[in-house]
Amino acid sequence: MDRLAPFGNDPFDKPPCRGCSSYLTEPYIKCAECGPSPFLLCLQCFTRGFEYKKHESDHKYEIMTSDFPVLEPGWTAQEEMALLEAVMDCGFGNWQDVAYQMRTKTKEECESHYMKNFINNPLFSSTLLSLRKTKDSRFAEGAIPFKPTDDPPRPTFDSVLSRDMAGYMPARADFMEEFDNYAEWDLKDIDFVDDDSDILRALKLSVVDIYHSRLKERQRRKKVIRDHGLINLRKFQMLERCYPKEVQELYDVMRRFARVVGPIEHDKFIESHALEFELRREIRRLQEYRKAGIKSFCSAKVYERVKRMREDERRKRTMLCDVLQYIQDGRACQQWLSKQAAIDAGITPVVTTITVSATGRRSAPPLNLTGLPGTEKLNEREKELCQVVRLVPGAYLEYKQALLNECRRQGGLRLAQARALIKIDVNKTRKIYDFLIKEGYITKA
Questions:
Q1: Residue 396 CB: number of other CB atoms within 10 A?
Q2: CA-to-CA distance for 374 and 274, rounded, in angstroms?
Q3: 405 closest CA partner among 388, 392, 422
Q4: Could you tell me which of 135, 155, 321, 336 has the C-alpha nearest to residue 233?
Q5: Alpha helix (H) residue ranges in 229-296
C-alpha cells in the first residue's frame, strides 16, 4: 500500500471514479494491476466490489492519499502543496492572505514553516543557488575572449585581420555589425500613448516582442561563436589541418551542426570519427598483409620496402609512356632518353635544346583521352581531332550538336556563324568546322 497523491488539491484535477463517475476525494483506491491508464475507484465502489472489463475485485490495490507528514510533523503533504500554491498566488511575505487561502494554518505558522523549510533549509537553498548560477551562466553576456593580453588588438575597419575576425572588436567585446543590424529601426517611431486603441496597442507590443526575439537570436549566435572559439579563424583552420583529408571533409560538412551541440561534444564527435578512420586504415593494412601471406611485423617491413620500390618503378614506366605518347619529335625524344640514361649512370648530361617551332613556341602535346567521359561515343577520326585540338569529348559533342541544329535550322552554316555560336578559340572553331564539313555532318551556306 503506497500513500501517494499524484494530483493536486482540486478534485476536478483528478479523473472521475470508474464506478459511479463522481469526483474523487482522498483517500481513494488505485488498481495496481490494471494499466497503463490508472484505474481509480472511490471508497464506496471499492467496498461494493466493483468490476469492469479486465478489472476484478481481487486485484492488488493502492490507497492514494496525501494525509502524511513530509518535512515536519503537523504538516501533511497536502498542506505543503497548498502552502506552495498559496505563496505563488498571493506572493512571498503576504502571510495573511496565504493563511486565508489555506484555512487550516495561521499566518505565523505559515511564515515560520515556509522560512524554516524552504528558505533557510540548506538543502533547498543550495539547490536553488546552483539553479540560479546555471541560469545566469546560460544567459551571461560576457565578452568573447580573443587571447590573453593586456592590450587587445584593434584592427582597422575593412582590414585583413578585421575580416578574419568577422568584424569583431576585442577592445569593445562586440561586433562592428550585429545580426539583423537594422532591427532597431522598427522601434524608433513607436510611441505608447494613453489614447491608443486595443488593437493598435497589441500591434505595438507584437513589434516589441519581435524585437526581443531578434535580440535573443543575436545573443545565441554570440554564444555559439564564444563557445566554439570561432573568432580566431586562423587558429581554427590550423586545427582542421591536423586531421587527414577525409576527416577534414567530414569536419567541413558537420560544422553547420556545431550549433546544436556544445564545443566539447562536437570535438569528441570529430575525434571519434578521426579515430575510426585510423582504425579502418590500419585494418585494411593488416588485411593486405594477411592476403599477401605475411604473419609477422618483420616481414611486413620488408613487404612495405619492396612495395615502395615497385611503386617507384611503376611511376617511372608511366612517366616514360606519357613522354613517348606526347612527344612526337623523334630527335627530341632521343635527346630526352640520352639525358635520363646519363643521369642514371651518374654522368653529367650534355645540355641540348629541343627543337621548337618557327614562332618560338613549343608545340602542345596531344590530349590524352583515356578515361575522359564521352570518349566511347567518338569514332577514330573524332578522337584524333579531339587529341590534336586538345578538346575534351564532352565539350566536342556539345559543340557538334549545336552546329548540327543550327545547320538544320538554316539549311547551311558559314564559318562566321559557327564562331558566333561557339565561344572558344577561333582556330579550334575553324578546325571543328572544317572537320564537320569534310565528314559530311554539315554543309556550307
A1: 21
A2: 37
A3: 422
A4: 155
A5: 233-240, 245-254, 263-291
C-alpha cell at 331: 630527335
Beta strands in 280-357 (DSSP E): none
Instruction: Write down the pLDDT at residue 353.
Output: 45
Q: Is the peptide bond before 170 cis (omega within 30 degrees of 0)?
A: no
Closest to 95 (Cα-Cα) out of 114, 70, 119: 114
C-alpha dist (Å) from residue 284 to 213, 291, 374: 52, 10, 34
Rounded CA gap, 229 and 212, in Å? 26
Backbone angles phi, psi at 253, to 5 degrees: -70, -40
Residues with Cβ within 8 Å of 390's Cβ and at least 6 positions away in sequence, in order, are: 364, 366, 367
Which cell numbers in the block locate residue 350? 650534355
Are 294 and 285 spatial neighbours (Cβ–Cβ below 8 Å)? no
Q: What is the residue-level pLDDT of the chain in tens, covering all 445 positions? A: 344 444 444 544 567 888 888 888 777 888 888 877 788 888 888 888 888 888 888 888 887 777 778 778 888 888 888 888 888 888 888 888 898 988 888 989 898 888 888 877 766 555 545 555 555 454 444 444 544 444 556 667 667 666 666 667 766 667 777 778 788 888 878 888 878 888 888 888 888 888 888 888 888 887 777 777 777 666 667 777 777 777 777 777 777 777 777 778 888 887 888 888 888 888 988 898 888 888 888 888 888 888 889 888 887 777 666 665 555 556 666 666 777 777 666 666 554 444 444 444 556 677 777 777 888 888 888 888 888 888 888 888 888 888 888 888 888 888 888 888 887 888 888 888 888 888 888 888 7
Which of 167-176 are b and which e, b meaning 16 or more Cβ less than 10 Å from the residue's Cβ?
ebbbeebebe
Query: What is the torsional sign of CA 254, 258, 261, 265?
Result: positive
User: Which amino acid, one-letter code, is at 424?
Assistant: I
Residues 107-127 as b/e (b if ≥16 CB within 10 A, e otherwise) read eebbbebbeebbeeeeeeeee
DSSP result, 199-213: HHHHHHHHHHHHHHH
Q: Which of 25, 22, 20 is CA-nearest to residue 65?
A: 25
- Greatest distance between any 2 Cα atoms in the chain: 119
Write the CB contacts of 97 (distance below 8 Å, at least 6 apart in sequence): 86, 90
Give the end-to-end CA distance of the chain in Å, rounded to a whole number. Answer: 104
Residue type for position 206: S
- CB of 354 closer than 8 Å to CB of 362: yes
At 72 the three-state DSSP class reads: coil
CA 90/CA 102 separation, integer angstroms? 11
Residue 258, all three cell numbers: 556545431
